[in-house]
TrEMBL record:
Signal peptide: none annotated. It is found in: Cell membrane; Cytoplasm, Cytoskeleton, Cilium axoneme. The gene is LOC109092574. This is WD repeat-containing and planar cell polarity effector protein fritz homolog isoform X3. One of its GO terms (biological process) is nervous system development. InterPro entries: Frtz (IPR024511). Residues 543-574 have a biased composition (Polar residues). Belongs to the WD repeat fritz family. Its main location: membrane. Keywords: Cell membrane, Cell projection, Cilium, Cilium biogenesis/degradation, Cytoplasm, Cytoskeleton, Membrane, Repeat, WD repeat. Coiled coil: none annotated. Residues 541-574 are annotated as: Disordered. GO terms for cellular component: axonemal basal plate; plasma membrane.
């Protein structure tokens, strides 16, 4: 009996060592979670050195099972992470952050804009403008401006956009779009630049325009182009059923996409309005073509009530469309269809606007190229609710409604996320990062946004964008900071991910990244990645696992297929015996 127990113990140790070896060989990304909240209900474990929150001075451990409260405080202080916040004038940071927490409990975030990597502005549904000044992943100053409260035509905001010279709102109760123009007295004043978060230093001018399509109360979305002279407002399609006693609606009343002109003197004006063929899921201006509107529309054939009980529902289909704003009108230029297996929920585009990422109801994501019609599919561990594409285009973040965050590379291969821990174990890495295991929130994840400003005011080519802003329903705000020490030079580009995949012997994932890189936009980086993968394969023994990707990369073909286990194990891919070289090869 004792010998059997010893045998079982030895087997458990061998299994643990094997799992730890596989853990060391797999690729993953380390991160830290910084929660900007004083709530005791978050219940952050004191042994969790990857999650941090804020505490009141003199506050003891929240529960008796926290035995490492003081040790974790010393650990955070040694790394420059604040444990307590000061309340010195004039910032009064502690009171301002508590006030922001109270606002988030009743007012959701409608718009987020990063003025720089250290300055983030949030616009709440009540019209409150919040400006956060950060130092790394820590809040250094919070400015709350209530100037717009009570000065808008309606109390409830459906959507909003923060611009350089004005704010744009769509109103819930009314079929209107409101523009709040900020006529700053002196644009070049350094004092104004230091107090850019305050609207009281400006002369506010409010302009309102009525939208076509009737006065229905619905969620209307707004978007602004890069030059900030044209805006678009769109909403879902309405039921076209005509009653015998109701008049036939006109083309203007049936419209669901409106083009607006934004200026100072006349204010907002309606340029054009059309009705889309499908139900729009996403609508935005192109970053490269400021007068092109990119939409993703859902097409699904409607069924009659008599046949609906006997026929199965048709699979949904989406179309990615491009509209051009020419001669004060919207004209559709192109459309690319994509059949789906489930209804799409959320959509986003990559920074180069080549790929469209769709989150589906069946817990999957689809990566679609409208130009070629190619699509890739991957399964998620949750229903996608929030999507965020890294500014470099190399990482895709998928968030679930219950606080799950899953990471993919641009080849749609999973890249597990793990918070920093003292002794990582194989079971700590799963398909998704469960934030509910680290903080206790009453509601789920509402949105996430990378700390990145598209229009940079300086050279930041070597700057690492490693901060992801998270906000939950009812608060709090948090920052997920990636620890990029495992990557080359703390960068997070496609080439860096290829190198990381190769170090972990994940050649298939590296090939997936290379296959989705754009040679026209990043030719030098593509060639370096191609050379790295080829060099990695040529150093391996020649077998089926190395032969297939080698043929894919270098266009070599074998006269006779190689066996899974070559007779001469010393033969490598660098040997050219039994290989023929075509006329064109890389």
């Amino acid at each position: 009996m004792v010998r059997n127990r010893e045998t079982v113990s030895n087997l458990d140790q061998l299994l643990s060592l094997r799992l730890l070896f596989e853990f060391d060989q797999m690729s993953f990304c380390l991160a830290e979670l910084h929660v900007w909240s004083f709530r005791n209900s978050l219940q952050v474990p004191d042994a969790d050195i990857g999650t941090y929150q804020l505490y009141e001075k003199g506050e003891p451990a929240s529960s008796t099972d926290q035995h490492y409260y003081n040790e974790k405080q010393q650990f955070a202080d040694s790394r420059g992470y604040p444990w307590f916040l000061s309340n010195r004038r004039p910032e009064k940071l502690r009171d301002a952050l508590k006030e922001l927490e109270e606002l988030l409990q009743s007012c959701p975030v409608m718009s987020v804009r990063w003025r720089s990597k250290q300055c983030c502005q949030l616009l709440l549904r009540s019209g409150v403008l919040v400006t956060l000044f950060l130092g790394g992943a820590q809040v250094e100053r919070v400015a709350i401006d209530r100037t717009l409260v009570g000065r808008l035509p309606a109390d409830t905001i459906s959507d909003a956009v923060i611009g350089d010279r004005f704010l744009l709102f769509s109103l819930m109760e009314r079929s209107q779009v409101c523009q709040v123009y900020l006529n700053r007295k002196n644009q070049s004043s350094p004092e104004l630049a230091r107090h850019m978060e305050k609207l009281t230093a400006t002369e506010i001018k409010v302009s309102v325009v009525d939208l076509p399509g009737g006065g229905r109360c619905m969620e209307r979305r707004v978007g602004l182009n890069r030059t900030q002279d044209v805006a678009v407002c769109w909403w879902p399609l309405c039921n076209e059923e005509v009653r015998p006693w109701s008049p036939v609606p006109s083309a203007v009343d049936r419209a669901n996409l409106v083009l607006l002109a934004c200026s100072d003197t006349p204010g907002l004006t309606v340029l054009s309005s059309i009705r889309t063929d499908g139900n729009p899921i996403d609508c935005r201006f192109s970053l490269t073509q400021p007068y092109h509107v990119l939409t993703v529309e859902l097409h699904q054939e409607a069924k009659h009530s008599t046949s609906e009980l006997y026929e199965e529902a048709q699979p949904p289909e989406v179309q990615t469309c491009v509209y051009e704003c020419a001669h004060r009108c919207l004209q559709r230029l192109s459309s690319s269809p994509l059949p789906l297996t489930s209804k799409p929920i959320i959509c986003c585009r990559d920074p180069l606007e080549r790929w469209v990422l769709l989150g589906l109801q069946d817990c999957s994501v689809v990566l679609f190229d409208p130009q070629t019609g190619n699509s890739q599919w991957a399964s998620c561990s949750m229903v996608p609710a929030v999507l965020a594409w890294h500014p470099s285009g190399a990482l895709l973040m998928v968030g679930g409604g219950q606080g799950e965050v899953q990471c993919f590379d641009m080849g749609l291969s999973p890249l597990p996320l793990q918070l920093v821990s003292e002794e990582p174990t194989p079971g700590s890495i799963g398909p998704s990062l469960q934030l509910s295991r680290h903080i206790k929130t009453s509601q789920g994840l509402e949105g996430m946004h990378w700390a990145y400003c598209p229009i940079s005011h300086g050279y930041d080519g070597l700057e690492a964008h490693d901060l992801l802003l998270l906000w939950f329903h009812g608060g709090p705000l948090a920052a997920l900071r990636l620890r990029l020490g495992v990557f080359n030079g703390t960068q997070l580009g496609p080439g860096d991910l290829v190198q990381h995949r190769l170090r972990c012997e994940e050649v298939g994932a590296a090939l997936g990244i290379l296959g989705n890189m754009d040679w026209a936009m990043m030719g030098a980086e593509c060639y370096r990645s191609l050379s790295s993968i080829t060099d990695h394969l040529l150093r391996k023994p020649l077998d089926q696992q190395t032969e297939d990707p080698s043929q894919t990369l270098s266009y070599w073909s074998t006269e006779t297929p190689s066996a899974d286990t070559p007779a001469d194990s010393s033969i490598t891919c660098s040997d050219t015996r039994g290989l023929k070289k075509p006329s064109c090869w890389l």
